[in-house]
Write a structure and sequence with these properties.
Largest sheet of chain B: 4 strands, parallel
Number of domains of chain A: 3
Largest interface: A-B, 27 and 28 residues
Strand order of the largest sheet of chain B: 5-4-6-7
Shape of chain A: globular
Number of strands of chain A: 24
Largest sheet of chain A: 5 strands, parallel
Order of helices and strands of chain B: HHHHHHEHHHHEHEHEHEHEHEH
CATH superfamily of the largest domain in chain A: FAD/NAD(P)-binding domain
CATH topology of the largest domain in chain A: FAD/NAD(P)-binding domain
Structural class of chain A: alpha/beta
Strand order of the largest sheet of chain A: 5-2-1-13-24
Number of helices of chain B: 16
Number of helices of chain A: 11
Shape of chain B: globular
Structural class of chain B: alpha/beta
Number of strands of chain B: 7
Radius of gyration of chain B: 20 Å
Strand content of chain A: 25-35%
Oligomer: heterodimer
Helix content of chain B: 40-55%
Strand content of chain B: 5-15%
Distance between the termini of chain B: 59 Å
């Protein structure tokens, strides 16, 4: 197959996380035209929310941001944010797709991301910031995070007084020197033909409020791993300071397998990332809170990847107590949270006091994956992950539709990158067949 | 293919969630995880150990592999029952239940004695129009401390205009505790007898007074096509719909103790709290371990019928001490077993325990 032949081909990548980004860049570098759809206002996915990645402790956004920018600048990649497929019809070997594009209310050609609009917004500091898991507040016109791609502001229609109620003094419009704000912008439907589709919708995390015995949502000082990740991050709500409710915790308790390997929550599978992200969290705490007391409750530590076992060992060496035993419950004690756990290797039942308990919540298919799969008639497994061919792990039950990343099952960052490459090469194989 | 219970036990990954949840593990020689481990290999188990389990159900509700540790205990107990290697008091309770259909061995003919001082007549369920049965429970039919509860609830339902009847001396023990002691044969007999009566009299609805009876009738009798509720659910509906008016205030700080069989095992947390909340003057307080994490009073799993070693601090005492520390005027609960176990240390320490119906009788 010649490069010219591939240049006539057009692939749709659904999802702008590290999996979708990898697939898109690889396809584009082979000469294929790519359209990337991202449901949110910026690409970057879950990985861009992480402070560091295990086991190397590389800064997550330092690794990912250049790739995000590459997507934005690549001449053969068209990026559409706030967009999702609405209807998909088989058309020959390819697909006719109608894409719904929600209004941004900001002209991307004019916005310079100066931020004046956000500063002027009357809702400033009053709306929950999704990127920081609602741990901080933002305005109705905002940029999701400093490294967002595209580097453009947007209006949150639900939070904006003018969009939702039709009444606001529109201070943002006055503040914007380039007159980029356009409240007349409407939802668009775009119809297009694609030769193949790569699905990279990503994942959700287990809703820890279901585990009533751990008091998430009702006890102060119980949070999830992804929330803790934002606390650690310099772009997070505390600017990377280890401060929770105004104080630096001293006693940290990490609980693994919350909503993984768990029939009570319908997830019999291992989420594959929690053991290592917990070790990473413990290592970060050790580094930033010198006198911290750190406990990790585990069932088995699954350190299967390259340098993972070594990372686990160095976490222990740093002074983290690993307790084999999963706590029964957490309650409020007089001097902190009380974690009831059997240290089964010593046979002792302990009540350990903690200032902060971090729940290593497991992985779930994204809620909208079902809808996406129904459009494409793609099979899913009993958990809702996209079913794949065991010998071609990006191939789905529908010809010409490929998948990468967590959508087909739990994967860490290196495995997701590998799966993005695998999806790109299967896709090339498909569109290259003559 | 292995027998289902055997393979279920083999899937235990020894994560310790059960031990961390258990109200007995740690303070007593009982270790639920260890017993499951021993059961995997059919290793010898000290015959005194399985009797500590209170059947609170926390282990089974939380076990990630669905091993059902509290059911494993029942399996172990049933082998001991078969071999006759059981505490004398347990033996006695089983014999009593066999002969008099109640574990205390009180005369079956006196099962409706609690109705004697009522100023209205309670009919046999067969004579009612709506075929709604008030299931009384053994301890509330006979124990002098608890006999007041059915009488109270009968008055409350009467006042709320709810038609109901009873089975009187035909009511047999529900078998909830007997099943947890491990005497499956006797449970079957009790169930057959009760089911026969329910069917014969065309019972359409059961209001259970004890959460233990409610649990058995709801979950362990098979599908009878009969709606089973706890009386607090019915009473809350009456208050909420305006059919039952609260006329007096109750100026007390009340701390509510969730019974395991009502709360964690059957998800009824709000009805009793709603009732308390509807009484003017009540300041509701909460235990640090409330709702799903409520600390078991140690009255379940047959523990009402025999004493285990008393060298360990009773959970009831932990509860009473917290209630006092929080400044509660009284502990309210909605289970006869909880009333009995809590009242013991409470009386000693000058704390008051009230079954919800007792509070209601003061305000209606």
């Amino acid at each position: 197959m010649g490069e010219r032949y591939l240049q006539e081909k057009h692939v749709l990548v659904v999802g702008g996380g590290i999996g979708g980004i990898t697939a898109a860049l690889e396809l584009a570098s082979c000469g294929v035209r790519v359209t990337m759809l991202e449901g949110g206002p910026s690409i970057g996915g879950r990985m861009i929310q992480l402070d560091k990645t295990f086991p190397t402790l590389d800064c997550s956004s330092c690794t990912l941001t250049p790739k995000m920018v590459e997507v934005a600048l690549h001449p053969r990649i068209e990026l559409m944010t706030l967009a999702k497929p609405m209807g998909i019809e088989r058309n020959g070997k390819g697909f006719s797709v109608s894409i719904q594009k929600r209004p941004r209310f900001v002209d991307m050609k004019k916005c310079t991301a100066c931020g004046a609009c956000s500063g002027a917004c009357v809702m400033k500091g009053r709306l929950s910031d999704e990127f920081n898991l609602r741990l901080s507040k933002r305005a109705a016109i905002y940029i999701p995070f400093p490294q967002a791609v595209p580097q453009k502001y947007l209006v949150d229609g639900d939070g904006c007084l003018f969009v939702s109620r039709g009444k606001c003094k529109k201070a943002c419009v006055e503040a914007c020197e380039t007159r980029a704000i356009n409240f007349d912008e409407k939802e668009e439907i775009i119809e297009s033909y694609y030769d193949a589709i790569v699905l990279a919708p990503g994942f959700d995390l287990y809703d820890a409020t279901e585990k009533r015995e751990y008091g998430y949502g009702s006890l102060e000082g119980v949070m999830t791993g992804i929330e803790f990740e934002r606390i650690c991050s310099v772009t997070g709500p505390t600017g990377g300071e280890m401060v929770i409710n105004g104080k630096t915790p001293k006693r940290f308790y990490f609980i693994q397998c919350v909503g993984s390997r768990d029939r009570q929550t319908g997830a019999r599978f291992c989420s594959r990332v929690c053991c290592m992200y917990t070790a990473k969290h413990a290592t970060i705490v050790r580094d930033r809170v010198k006198d911290a007391e750190i406990y990790v409750s585990y069932i088995d530590v699954r350190a299967y990847g390259k340098n993972y076992e070594e990372f686990y060992k160095s976490t222990q060496e740093g002074g983290t107590y690993y307790i084999r035993g999963i706590p029964g419950d957490i309650t409020q004690g007089e001097k902190g949270l009380l974690v009831r756990v059997e240290d089964m290797l010593s046979g002792e039942l302990r009540e350990i006091e903690a200032d902060l308990v971090v729940l290593a919540t497991g992985v779930r298919p994204r809620k909208d994956t079902a809808e996406l799969c129904n459009l494409l008639k793609v099979d899913r497994d009993e958990y809702g992950f996209i079913r794949t061919d065991s010998i071609a792990p990006s191939r789905t039950s529908t010809k010409g539709v490929f998948v990468c990343g967590m959508a087909s099952g739990p994967k860490d960052v290196p495995d997701t990158v590998a799966s993005g490459g695998e999806a790109a090469s299967r896709c090339l194989e498909y569109i290259g067949e003559q | 293919m292995l027998e289902q219970t055997v393979s279920r036990v083999l899937t235990c990954i020894q994560c310790g969630k059960c031990t961390g949840s258990c109200p007995e593990s740690g303070k007593t020689p009982f270790n639920i995880r260890m017993l499951v481990r021993k059961q995997q290999f059919q290793s010898a188990i000290d015959e005194a150990i399985p009797w500590y389990c209170t059947s609170c159900g926390a282990c089974t509700l939380r076990c990630p592999r669905d091993v059902k540790p509290s059911e494993v205990i029942i399996d172990i107990r049933s082998l001991l029952v078969e071999d006759g290697q059981i505490p004398l008091a347990v033996q006695k309770a089983l014999e009593n239940t066999f002969t008099q259909k109640n574990p205390w061995g009180r005369s079956r003919a006196k099962r409706a004695a609690w109705t004697e001082n009522l100023d209205f007549e309670i009919r046999h369920v067969s004579e009612t129009a709506e075929k709604r049965l008030l299931f009384v429970c053994c301890i509330q039919a006979y124990d002098p401390r608890c006999m007041v509860i059915p009488a109270n609830v009968a008055r409350i339902l009467n006042q709320g205009g709810v038609e109901f009847g009873i089975l009187g001396e035909e009511e047999a023990c529900c078998g909830n505790e007997i099943r947890r002691i491990g005497e499956a044969g006797l449970v079957e007999e009790l169930q057959e007898e009760n089911k026969g009566n329910l069917q014969e009299y065309g019972v359409k609805e059961i209001i259970a007074l004890s959460p233990h009876c409610m649990n058995a009738l709801k979950k362990e009798y098979g599908d009878m096509g009969i709606k089973v509720s706890h009386y607090t659910e019915v009473v809350w509906d009456l208050i909420n719909s305006g059919a039952l008016a609260i006329s007096k205030p109750f100026e007390k700080k009340v701390i509510y103790h969730d019974p395991c069989f009502l709360g964690k095992q059957n998800g009824i947390f709000d009805a009793p709290r709603n009732i308390l909340g509807a009484i003017p003057g009540v300041t509701p307080l909460e235990f640090s371990r409330a709702r799903e994490t409520s600390l078991c009073c140690e009255g379940g799993g047959g523990r009402m019928f025999f004493e285990v070693e008393t060298i360990y601090q009773r959970n009831a005492e932990v509860r009473v001490l917290e209630a006092i520390a929080k400044g509660a005027d009284l502990i309210a609960t909605a289970c006869p077993f909880c009333v009995m176990t809590l009242e013991d240390p409470a009386t000693e320490k000058g704390q008051v325990v009230r079954e919800l119906s007792e509070i209601l009788m003061e305000v209606l």
